[in-house]
Amino acid sequence: MDAAPAWAEHVPAWMSGNRMLELQGLTRQFGTTLAVDHVNLEVPDGQMVGIIGRSGAGKSTLLRLINRLEAPSSGRILSGGRDVTALDGRALRDWRRDCAMVFQQFNLVQRLDVLTNVLIGRLAYQRGWRSFMVLVGARFTAAERAMALAALDRFGLADTALQRAETLSGGQQQRVAICRALMQQPRLILADEPIASLDPRNAQVVMDALRDVNRQDGLTVLVNLHHLDTAREYCDRIVAMQAGKVVFDGTPAALTAERVRAIYGISEEEFAAEAAARLRADAAPARLAMA
C-alpha cells in the first residue's frame, strides 16, 4: 500500500474525508482559444496546492472558474458531491463566500481604513438593506469588529487598523486582503498570483500567512505562482499547466529540473528568468500606484 501523501499529516482530523473539490473535464473557451482544456483534478480538504505555468497557461482562468467568476464552457465543479456549476442566486453567493479569492493587486479600497477593508469580508453574510447600510457607512457589529481586529493582530497588523489602506506597503496590503478573505469564514482560499507585485521579503511574509491559514485553520489553499522554488517550499502538491492543460500533478520533490525542461521545453533557469521578467512588469504598476 502506498504511503500517505505528505499533506495528509496537516489535515485536521475533523476534516478528514469530509469534503473534496473535484474538477471534471473543466473547460473554458474564449472564441477559438481553450484557456482551460478539459482539466480533471481532485483536491482533498486541507491541501495546499501550487499551480504553476508560463503566462497564458490558464492558471488564473482556472481559479476564476472554481469561484464561478467565469462560467465553464463544459465540465463540472463538485464540492462534497454538490454540483457547483449548477448553482445560481443565493446558493451561488454562498459558494463565493465559502470560496474566498485573494488577488494579485490586493483589491482594497485605498481611501478606507484597514479595519473597514477587513470588515468588508463580512458583507458576504449581509442581505438586502443591511448590506446597503454597511456600504454607505453604517457600523458593523461589535463582534464583527473584534473578529477583524483579531485577524489583523494575528498577522502583525493590529497597529495599522485605523490607517488608510493606501499608506501600507504591498506586503501589508496583501496580508490585509488575506484577513478580509478570512472574515468570510471560507472553506477554500484561491490566491491568484498573490506575490507577483511584491519584493522577496514581502513575498515570504505573504506566503507564510497563506501557509499559516492552511496549517492552523485547515483551509484548502490553491495558489497560482510563478516561482518554482516558492511552490516547492510552501505547497504540498504542485500542478503545472500548459496551454490550458494539466501537464504535471505531483509532489514538490517530483518536480525536478529535468521534469521542468520536459514540461516547458526550457531549463529551470530560463523559466526563473521568464518569471522574474513577468514579476518586474507586474510590479511596475503597483509601484507607480503607491508613489
UniProtKB/TrEMBL annotation:
<keyword id="KW-1278">Translocase</keyword>
<dbReference type="InterPro" id="IPR003593">
    <property type="entry name" value="AAA+_ATPase"/>
</dbReference>
<dbReference type="InterPro" id="IPR012693">
    <property type="entry name" value="ABC_transpr_PhnC"/>
</dbReference>
<protein>
    <submittedName>
        <fullName>Phosphonate ABC transporter ATP-binding protein</fullName>
    </submittedName>
</protein>
<feature type="domain" description="ABC transporter">
    <location>
        <begin position="21"/>
        <end position="268"/>
    </location>
</feature>
<dbReference type="InterPro" id="IPR050086">
    <property type="entry name" value="MetN_ABC_transporter-like"/>
</dbReference>
<keyword id="KW-0067">ATP-binding</keyword>
<dbReference type="InterPro" id="IPR003439">
    <property type="entry name" value="ABC_transporter-like_ATP-bd"/>
</dbReference>
<dbReference type="Pfam" id="PF00005">
    <property type="entry name" value="ABC_tran"/>
</dbReference>
<keyword id="KW-0547">Nucleotide-binding</keyword>
<keyword id="KW-1003">Cell membrane</keyword>
<dbReference type="GO" id="GO:0005524">
    <property type="term" value="F:ATP binding"/>
</dbReference>
<keyword id="KW-0472">Membrane</keyword>
<dbReference type="InterPro" id="IPR027417">
    <property type="entry name" value="P-loop_NTPase"/>
</dbReference>
<dbReference type="InterPro" id="IPR017871">
    <property type="entry name" value="ABC_transporter-like_CS"/>
</dbReference>
<keyword id="KW-0813">Transport</keyword>
